[in-house]
Design brief:
single chain, 289 residues, mainly alpha, 12 helices, 79% helix, 0% strand, globular, EmrE-like, transmembrane, EamA domain-containing protein, EamA_dom, membrane
């Protein structure tokens, strides 16, 4: 399997694993900082176990290789998570995920400025088509809009794009270990400003599975993607969550999106599939300017 195909496959798999995250956050419906306290701690523990299994005794060396770039990834992950969870509570799942989908454009700008990457024509075309799908969803009127929540979602998208661009700047280094201190910082801030939520046993079990198993696995896979594909393409694949997240909420919480939202989601999904197939066939790396 070529490196580019590996990057596309790992990132796509990671997005499929993380897609129920918005559903869990909407279902828990607790204080954001209290959720973040345990979400961050469970994420750090789960990722530590996965990376220990992967690196064995070489884990300290893997940490050291991340260097200052890893510190930047950790901070971007931490504050992106803080903004994302707060935005989810203020603006709701649909608005937050839609604004979060702007990360490909932000990643494109960052990769152009920092890394001098030129974008492939198929990537530019996919971004334009996806923007059309996003626009269809955004213009659909829905109650519960929040300006502060939308702004937090935009900040979260920017920080996420920064995380992937930093990881892309060091393609020979796995930046997954850097997410552990980032998650611990999330947990620390959550305990300081939030505390422990009063959840039922079933809610605790779901939180443990999502934050302790699925999130670490998903972010480890997603963090590996920029080693072989551009930050923009990683961000573009994040649009999968924009489509799948509302579908999970619709299916299990009975929050049905409108026909216009479904049409926009279909356009986005088709564009992503076409872009991934073209990228898989080309097997080429992004061109440097």
């Amino acid at each position: 399997m070529r490196d580019r195909q590996k990057g596309l496959l790992l990132t796509t798999l990671g997005m499929l694993v993380i897609s129920p995250d918005a559903l869990v956050l909407r279902w828990l419906a607790g204080d954001a900082m209290q959720i973040l306290a345990w979400r961050g701690l469970l994420m750090a523990l789960g990722l530590s176990l996965l990376l220990t299994w992967r690196y064995r005794t070489e884990l300290p060396v893997a940490f050291h290789r991340c260097g200052w770039t890893g510190l930047g990834c950790a901070l971007c992950y931490c504050f992106s998570t803080l903004c994302f969870v707060h935005a989810m509570g203020l603006a709701g799942a649909a608005s937050t995920l839609l604004i979060f989908s702007l990360s490909p454009l932000i990643a494109a700008a960052l990769a152009w400025v920092w890394l001098g990457e030129r974008l492939a024509l198929r990537t530019l075309m996919a971004i334009m088509v996806c923007l059309g799908g996003v626009l269809l969803i955004v213009v659909d009127e829905s109650p519960g809009s929040s300006l502060s929540g939308n702004l937090l979602a935009l900040v979260a998208a920017t920080l996420l794009a920064g995380n992937f661009t930093l990881a892309r700047s060091q393609p020979a280094v796995d930046m997954s270990p850097a997410l552990i201190p980032g998650a611990l910082l999330v947990s620390l801030l959550g305990f300081v400003f939030g505390g422990t939520p009063d959840f039922a046993v079933q809610q605790w079990l779901v939180l443990v599975v999502m934050a302790g198993v699925l999130l670490p696995l998903a972010f480890m896979l997603i963090q590996l993607g920029p080693r072989w594909i551009s930050a923009t393409e990683v961000g573009l694949l994040l649009l999968l969550e924009v489509v799948l997240g509302p579908l999970w909420v619709w299916w299990l919480l009975d929050e049905a999106p409108s026909g216009q939202v479904l049409l926009g989601g279909t356009i986005i999904l088709l564009a992503l599939c076409g872009h991934s197939l073209l990228g898989w066939r080309s097997g080429s790396r992004p061109l440097a300017a």
